[in-house]
Amino acid sequence: MINEKNNINEIFKFIITERKSFLIIAIVIISFLLISIFFYNDLIKEERTFFQNRIIANFNTKLDSTLSFISKSILSLNLDTQSNLNFYSSILNQIEQNYFINFAIIFPRLSNLIEISQKEIEEETKQDAYLGYLSALSAYENKKYPLAESYLLENIQTQGNFLYTTIESYRLLIQIYQETNNLSQLSIYCNKALSYILFNNIKTPFLIEILEILYNINQNINIKRSIIIQSYLFSKIYSLNIPENYNISKKTEIKSKYILDYITSQSFQKEYLTLKSTVNNSGIHFFSLLDQNNAIFINFFPMNSQIITLIYSFDLEYFSQLMLDNLKSYEFKFSINMDEFTKETEAYTLFKVSDITIGTYRKLYMALYVRNSELLGYLSQKRYRITNIAFAILVFLIFITILILFSFTLKEFTLNKLKSDFISITSHELKTPITAMQLMLETIIDRYQSLNDDKKVEYLTNIFKETERLLFLINNLLIYSRNEKNRQSIIISNVNLYQILSDVVEFFKIDKKFMKIYIDFPENDIIIEADTHSLKQVFYNLIDNAYKYSKDEKVLEIKVIDEKNYVKLKFKDNGIGINSKELPYIFEKFYRGSETNFIPGTGLGLSLTKSIIEMHQGKITVSSQENMGTEFTIILPKKQKNLKRRLLNESKENLTG
After folding, report:
1. In what order do the strands lie in the sheet containing 330-335?
2. DSSP reduced 3-state for 577
């Protein structure tokens, strides 16, 4: 990998001047591809028209079947009107059997409300019917539940005209079923009691008690929601209180509080009366659309010379999903205004709008949206599938061919650039110490007589240090050359790790006076099997990097940790750090970071360092943060295992001069 982004203009210039053959091949391949596309488009042109017609027919069928399904499902909701005393049970059964019903409630009559007075109660208590109730109450208090039940059932069946007595009979009978845990009878007679009260339009707190019992014994969530809404409607219209400890007082189970507010509002009642006067109190009618999940329908049905009003909320989205074979391909939306449908959404396009109105009061429209990619999906799945696959393979092969050709060309361009950069950098690195030595030697020669002995020694010492620096640089190049030829080897011996490290550090303390180096080394000597000269080269490279890539105040901390079978060395500096994106590449040959353009170096040091450490069966890792410094960690085994020692094909140079 190169350390900087290649200039696009340079790459194209290289292709045009050095690799004209690649350019010609690429032009021929692209021309062939364009011709293929032209014939391919002509081939599928008629097919596209054919399938467009097929798709339109399919979508129309889908729309018609959904419309028919919704209409039939709503119109088929027939109640059992044979008995006045079980029609509320029929409503609850509808909710349980039809998952598209969010809730169903009875809207009570707003006129002719009966409120039993104290005087009427006193009159009833004098009748024989009330004596039957008292007999049942006495049997109940003596735990004679079957006897009490028989009295109460007879009262309910024969004395319906006595409102107070009948209600109290229902109340006591329900209490008996609760105490005996007879849930089936409890459900039946709660429904019958509720139906009796509603049919006679009686205002009584017993209504709320019955709804609380029905709520507790039913598990269906939509039934529970219906009962909550029903109780709030009764509470509003009949001015009845719902005790706070009742479960039906919890509004949290309702999907939206707006529904409760809407059903119990004055505006709803006003519009309801308008509907009732408009449609002549017959059949089921669309009333309003609260949202996509709540379409309100009102059903008027006759029962014994009375008109009962039932309010349904249907989940239209659930309705439509029942008819979709692929939820990602289609989408239905509903509105009371045709103009509200947008032509397109992010992924769908409006196909068709249909009138799905039920009743005569208000219009309801359903829009079918089709996924934008549906047409292309049909084309890729139907006829000429082999043609599509063959064309796709052709395009893929052409792309791969161009990619391979361009990859080889880019690699060659990169190698040429690396070679040019390497020669330039290496020449500069070699020239710097040679120029310094030359200047100091000229000074000694020209001023030999006038220079004192101390000055001569200083100059000669500096010349010696520059030769050492030059030797380390040349050794890096020699090691790289041997690695490339697979000729590099090491000579293992027992070495004192502290001595090797100290030699390199002392060299830097003299040569790099502005760098502070701290060594944390165990008190005991550490002897390991290693190659002395190779380890010196490793330490030199790491300390040299710390010096070059640190700012004005240069600090390096070296910590040595002695473990049982290995030794760990940490080199931590306070330098400029390394970008996290560049960390994976710093051990590659010639790689230099994007922030190091103005810092001298060949890009070989860390690559050779890693190679030497691995030859010692060790490991080197790095951690760094920008502007926070860098830490290199080396782990070296104390004993070398199964090491294949190769003899040098050439005499070993003295790395320290």
Report:
1. 330-335, 365-371, 348-355
2. coil
Torsion angle, alpha carbons of 383, 386, 391, 393, to 10: 140
Sequence-distant (6+) residues with CB within 8 A of 6 are 410, 413, 414, 417
Cα(407)–Cα(91) distance, integer angstroms: 73
Cross-strand bridge partners of residue 570: 559, 633
Instruction: Indicate the domain borders of the chain.
Output: 486-637
- Looking at the whole model, is its pTM more than 0.85? no
- Do residues 192 and 174 make contact, with C-beta atoms less than 8 angstroms apart? no
User: What CATH superfamily is the domain 486-637?
Assistant: Histidine kinase-like ATPase, C-terminal domain (3.30.565.10)
Tell which residue, 148, 74, 551, 557, has the closest CA to residue 318.
74
Distance of CA 370 to the CA centre of its chain: 25
Distance CA 610, CA 607 (A): 5
DSSP β-bridge partners for residue 555: 516
Can you give the pLDDT at residue 557? 92
Strands (E), 54-117: 101-107
The residue type of 596 is T
Kindly give the residue spans of alpha helices, DSSP state H, lying in 86-182.
87-97, 118-124, 128-141, 145-158, 163-179
Provide the strand spans (E) within 37-121: 101-107
- State phi, psi for 201 to the nearest 5 degrees: 55, 55
What are the DSSP calls for 449-517, one per residue?
TTS-HHHHHHHHHHHHHHHHHHHHHHHHHHHHHHHHTT------EEEEHHHHHHHHHHHHHHH-TTEEE
H or E element in which residue 370 lies: strand 365-371
CA distance 299 to 312: 8
C-alpha pair distances (Å), 447 with each of 287, 321, 444, 457, 460:
113, 101, 5, 14, 14
pLDDT score of 51 more than 80? no
Per-residue pLDDT tens over the stretch 112-161: 888 888 998 888 888 888 888 999 999 999 999 999 999 999 888 886 68
Beta strands 348-355 and 365-371: pairing type? antiparallel
Cβ atoms of 474 and 466 closer than 8 Å: no
For 170, what's the count of Cα atoms within 13 Å in the CB-facing half-sphere? 27
pLDDT at 472: 67
Look at residues 361, 310, 322, 363 and name the one whose alpha carbon lies nearest to residue 78: 310
User: Average pLDDT for residues 70-80, to the nearest whole number?
Assistant: 75
- Higher confidence at residue 362 or residue 280? 362
C-alpha to C-alpha distance for 187 and 211, rounded to whole angstroms: 11
**Residue 627 CB contacts under 8 Å (≥ 6 apart), including other chains:** 576, 577
The pLDDT tens digits for 178-197 are 999 999 899 989 988 988 88
Greater confidence (41 vs 107) lies with 107
Alpha helices in 182-313 (DSSP H): 183-199, 206-217, 221-238, 257-263, 266-278
DSSP 401: H
- Closest alpha carbon to 620 in 654, 582, 589, 586: 586
Spatial neighbors of 628 by CB under 8 A, at least 6 apart, are: 577
Beta bridge partners of residue 368, listed in sequence order: 332, 352
The closest of 256, 249, 244, 255 to 221, measured between CA atoms, is 255
514 burial via Cβ count (<10 Å: 0-12, 13-18, 19+): exposed
**Sign of the CA dihedral running 261, 263, 264, 265:** positive
CA distance linking residue 657 with residue 653, whole number of Å? 8
Whole-angstrom distance, CA of residue 601 vs CA of residue 422: 9
Task: Copy the structure tokens of residue 643.
Answer: 């090491």
DSSP annotation string for 290-317: EETTEEEEEEEEEETTEEEEEEEEE-HH
